[in-house]
Structure formats: C-alpha cells, structure tokens
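**Entry details**
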Amino acid sequence: MKTLDSVLLIEDDVITAFLIKTLMEKFDFCKNIQIYDNGEEALNQISNLQNLPEVIFLDLNMPVMNGWEFLNHLQKQQTLLNIPIYILTSSIDPLDKERAKKFPNVKGYLVKPLSLRDLEKINSSL
C-alpha cells in the first residue's frame, strides 16, 4: 500500500476520529491526517492548507454543518471538486447511498467502522 501525503477526516465523534486516525497511522495509510468536527470548520480551514488533501473521509450526521451541506458547498468550489470523497457513516439507509451517488467526487460509501480492507481498496483505486 502506498502512503498518501494528506487526508482530511470530517468526523464529530472524538472516539471514532481517534480510532480512524490510529488505524491509518498503524498501516501507514497517510503521513498527515487533518481532523475537523464538522463541515463548516473543514470548509473554513481547507483553503488555508498548503497542500490539498488527497482524500476526504466525510461523516454525514454532524452538528453545525452536516455532510450533505458540506458536499453542497464543496460543489461551488472548483479547486476542490477533484478531491475524492468517501462517505464514512453509521447510516445504512439506501436513500443516503443513492443520494451520495449524485455527487461526482463521492467515490464510495462506507459504513462505520472503517477497516483495513476499506483502506486497501481506497488506496488501490487512487
């Protein structure tokens, strides 16, 4: 598995974020993991990053700005449209899966918990 330079994780649950970060570090998935608790915080900070993330992992159900709102705002920012996004959620609702397919940069829909197998599939698709 090749090591990515930068990943953005948008996740409001501190324990889940910690577990995902630990998994990514343990298997050298990426060198730099930026974590934000909601979509608004991520959008405000992403433009300040020196290097754009190679992948964004996005939770759907968050306070302030949820994942759907984040995706809608992202569609208006041309420079961010090429970043692959993986929905990482506890939602197994088929309507959520179908809705996610409407966003061209959403490359996958993963149900928590994130696994090594998920990371390997993502890595091989990049």
Remarks:
- Residues 8 and 56 are 5 Å apart (CA to CA).
- The chain is about 35% helix and 25% strand.
- The radius of gyration is 13 Å.
- The chain has a mean pLDDT of 93.
